[in-house]
Design brief:
heterodimer; A: 191 residues; mainly alpha; flat; B: 390 residues; Alpha-Beta Plaits; 3 domains; two-stranded parallel ribbon; two-stranded antiparallel sheet; 19 helices; 4% strand
Amino acid sequence: MVPSLLTERAGLRPNARFLSAFLGARLLGYLLFAAVASEIGALALKLPAPRVPLMGGVDVLLACMLVWYAYSARHICGQACSGSKLVNISTSRDRRAGRAAALGLLTGLSLCPPFVVAGIRAAQLGSVVQALLFFIFFFVGTSVWFVPFVGLGCVARNQAVIMVARMTMVLVALYYLSLGIAMLIGRKVYG
Amino acid sequence: MASNACMPRFGNEAPRSAGRAVLLTLPILLWSLLMFFHPGGNTGRLWLIADGITAVFMTTLFFMMMRTRRTYRWRRWFFVSVGVLFPIGFIHNVMAMRGTMGIPIEEMIAGRTPFCFMPIPLLILPAAFTRTIVFPGSILPGGGMSGSGIASMVGLWLAITLVIGKGWCSYACFFGGIEEGVAAVPKRAKIRKIDPRWRLGPWAVLMAMVLLSLGLFESAYCMWLCPFKAVSEYVAARNTVGLIQNGIFMLLFGGLVIALPLLTKKRTQCSFFCPFGAFQSIFNKASIFEIKIDQTLCKPCALCQTACPTMSLSNESIARGETLMSCMKCGACVDACPRKAAVWHIKGTEVAGKPERARLMFLYAAWAMAVMFGGSIIAQGIATILHFLA
């Protein structure tokens, strides 16, 4: 999220729109997960076997998304010229929403331990409505931290910052890729 | 005049007289004696020999700096010695205590992981947000294999940084000497044209590692990207992730610390990768010492650019009369400049003022720290070698 916003050279408004799409998709991911959790129940979530490959797949997808994003930002140049349509969030509304949504969905579905615990809790509630409400508040509680990121695009005023952000995305992508591959291989990952 | 003719000349500058150089070296000699032979210090014949050799070594190098008015080549002897001897002493300790270079998960859970300065940038945000140190080591001294705790290392780093700034990377880092030694091996660089965008690498690694450390609550650099795990200690590879991590460590060490320095004659790991170096560039603002280019003397011959081991001089920065943020104050450009346009400088003073005085002030601070920090590493390495020889 942080490197993505840094590759843009947009003001507060476009960044707020980008962040809204990101958070909206994240909320959608949460709600989908809540619905699935309540339907399938706690059993599926407690089984480690299907969870690990799923997490691995999501990590690999996220890595691919980040690499694509970093690659597509290569045309962003000096202050006057416009960036690539793929990444210039202030010109192409459909695409920027799509990209932000994809990032939001993939990070939202990342099954980190607190998320899994929340999923188990939602599954134990026994009602879809209760599970959805539980995840809505889970979303609200965790989204507060994203608000300050709206101003990050304002930092990206020179080529060096954009280049650093692109390199950062590739590095973070490599981290998720290696973790995802390790999980998909199906070997013992931790411990 | 006759005596001057008999004296050796270094570059285009007459050396300082031996008597004056001895006088200037006296404070460092006394400091070395205090550091290595203080009451309650190391005892035993091997340690006394190691401490003695180190004290003589450090004092002699400083004397030569004073005598020849040159910095880089003598500093490099010290720095490469630290880089070579640190793994020897450290690995010996690790093997004696643990029997393996791999850190088992039990050691991490017990908070006995040795702490080095590299993860300091990664600790700040998690500590600020949650008051949690995301490193499995001891806060106080005595918890880790090296005996130094997180608090003491952070305190030492802060004290040194406030004085010499990014000079840390040339006088205190116990890893950089390895690649500086490797880079000194070839006579000429095989790769001369390097895309300047690679200089942004350390900032990218810093940002990625800070974000990952904040998100994952682990010291991401130590777990995934530290090339020097290959010559200190690594994650015990009990699983797939451990294997991947160790593969990355070996790949980075082989590429950035061995292969690329051989091909480029540059400190490539420091220049293109090290997140601590980028972090240190920010704190360098606190230091009063810097290198400046005197525009009235400079004829753009690019000798300083060629000499700089970290690509910290560009045409634009020279035109501005300064080095880039990545400058480690090693003194290579100052020594290489035939017109004395590259000078040591104290902020707030005139550039063409008294550069030798600025150099002396910087060197006293940097060398005093080098004796204390790097000197102890050299002594330990020598003691380890003597232990094996005895």
